[in-house]
Design a protein that fits this description.
It is a single chain. By secondary structure, the protein is an alpha+beta fold. It folds into 4 domains: 87 residues; 152 residues, Jelly Rolls, CATH 2.60.120.1440; 122 residues, Jelly Rolls (Sandwich), CATH 2.60.120; 84 residues, Lipocalin, CATH 2.40.128.370. 16% of the residues lie in helices and 41% in strands. It has 4 helices and 31 strands. The strands form 4 sheets. Strands 1, 2, 3, 4, 5, 6, 7, 8, 9, 10, 11, 12 and 13 form a 13-stranded mixed sheet that branches. It is globular, with a radius of gyration of 30 Å.
Length: 487
């Protein structure tokens, strides 16, 4: 670094990109510190010293190099160390940032759909609203999961087949299917109406199942609820208690054991961690049973998050109870942006191929060869890690107009907003300040994938939609972006 040939512009750019990773920067500092100490540790060659002494020559460089070189190196190390220290401090600050609970402003709708997994709507011709109130259409699904969040913070998870309607900011009506409700402190009094009465929350987590034969099961996972039934005294149910109500029976309420395995209390994660830390091919098996609810066009997105190495991806296959249902074997790769290529894999489950059972993905991955050059250090252990995101829905068929708007996300404690404009231009803001390097960036959509040109880097970023409110970065290690309301 101090006495070798100067780095080319390409190598300098590569160095800057590598040093954006904390592990690579720490290694660079360690090497710099070692090189800074080398002039102090290596004694002068005796034969040269004798020749110089006999000639009466003591070059200035000989006298000063043992001071100047370490001093210059120390300055470099100090500057880099200061930068690393500031980055570490920012990282520490970002760790304490907590994600606020999902709430809606009082002026907005009573409730909002905040998550969908494997949903098949009962009537595809009916408009499916995101923001809901008492005048909205009921939610009617054949299969899958729907998460609703009320303005009070109450969270309702529906499992299909189900029918549910929002009845204001503090109530809903369950006509069919299962739900799990979490009521935060301060939102007590939330009510769920059903054909045989009302379940009133008193600060709790509870579940309900409106059975096809007209019976209703109610179970309390924590806290307590009160059941109101016309013509009868109210019944209190406490934690770990459950009952079934049979309409028109002489004694309609019957206690039953609480079945904790029966209900889905939250939407399942779509992200699965992977890591490559050695040479050679590694095979991963990932259970996605909780995400496959129907025949659909599923997509597996391999996203790099951290590490020095990029990885090659191949032979991505989807199995049902050990039998292959779908496969996409095209070669792809993921890593820092310049190494991302064809990292989205199609795993379509056609009508007639779907059934309930154990669904798994198998994939083969291996580290990408590091190549040659002054930045390649074989002594650095192989390491690359990231996530597989398993998606369906808009990920395969979003239109250009669905990307238009302002999208917000956070990264390492900073808040970013990307604004995709109808004329094809895009702007980027970081903590409220516009990044002028994006002034010439453009965006376009091909086969449901949003492409964004980054001229100052000579690269293209790619994004897809999970739903109308959620943007996925397929080529960057960022969390999903959320669409901001129109001002």
């Amino acid at each position: 670094l101090y006495d070798g040939p100067a780095l080319s512009k390409q190598e300098v750019a590569q160095l800057e990109e590598f040093l954006e990773n904390d592990d690579a920067l720490a290694y660079y500092l360690a090497v710099s510190q070692q090189e800074a100490l080398m002039p102090m540790a290596i004694p002068p060659f005796e034969d040269i010293a004798e020749v110089e002494a006999r000639a009466g020559i003591v070059p200035f460089f000989r006298r000063s190099s043992r001071i100047i070189i370490p001093l210059a190196a120390a300055c470099v190390v100090f500057g880099l160390g200061l930068g690393l220290g500031l980055r570490i401090e920012r990282r520490k600050e970002s760790v304490v940032v907590t994600k606020p609970p999902v709430t809606l402003a009082p002026s907005q709708a009573s409730a909002r759909i905040t998550g969908l997994v494997g949903v098949e709507w009962t009537d595809e011709s009916v408009p499916h609203q995101i923001d809901l109130d008492a005048s909205s259409n009921e939610i009617a699904i054949k299969s899958g999961l729907v998460e609703l969040t009320y303005s009070s913070g109450v969270c309702v998870t529906l499992e299909g087949p189900a029918k549910y309607a929002v009845e204001g900011g503090e109530a809903g009506r369950l006509e069919a299917g299962k739900l799990y409700t979490t009521v935060p402190k301060g939102a007590e009094g939330f009510r769920v109406h059903y054909s045989g009465g009302i379940v009133e929350d008193l600060g709790t987590e509870f579940a309900m199942d409106a059975l096809p034969d007209g019976r209703m099961e109610v179970g309390v996972f924590s806290g307590k609820v009160k059941l109101h039934s016309e013509g009868r005294d109210s019944i209190m149910l406490f934690e770990n208690q459950s009952l079934v109500q049979t309409p028109d029976a002489a004694d309609p309420f019957e206690p039953i054991p609480l079945n904790r395995e029966k209900y889905v209390n939250r939407l399942p994660a779509r992200d699965f961690r992977w890591e490559v830390d050695a040479e050679g091919t590694r095979e991963f098996t990932i259970d996605v049973t909780h995400l496959v609810w129907k025949p659909a066009k599923y997509r597996a997105i391999f996203k790099w998050i951290s590490g020095f190495d990029a990885v090659k991806i191949r032979d991505v296959r989807l199995f049902l109870d050990g039998q292959q249902v779908a496969a996409d074997t095209h070669p792809g790769s993921t890593g820092v942006l310049r190494h991302v290529s064809n990292n989205i894999y199609a795993l379509d489950v056609r009508t007639g191929e779907y059934d309930r059972g154990r669904w798994t993905i198998k994939v083969r991955m291996e580290s990408l060869e590091r190549g040659d050059g002054p930045l390649v250090h074989p002594e650095i252990p192989i390491r690359s890690s990231g996530i597989l995101q398993f998606e369906e829905g808009l990920v395969t068929g979003a239109e250009a107009e669905q990307f238009i708007g302002r999208w917000s996300y956070t990264y390492l404690g900073s808040t970013f907003i990307r604004d995709f404009k109808p004329d094809g231009s895009v702007t980027l803001e970081q903590n409220g300040k516009r990044d002028e390097l994006w002034a010439s960036s453009r965006w376009w959509v091909e086969r449901g994938v949003l492409n964004v040109s980054i001229p100052h880097k000579g690269m293209v970023e790619r994004h897809v939609l999970r739903d109308e409110k959620t943007l996925i970065f397929t080529s960057n290690p960022y969390d999903n972006a959320v669409k901001l309301p129109v001002e």
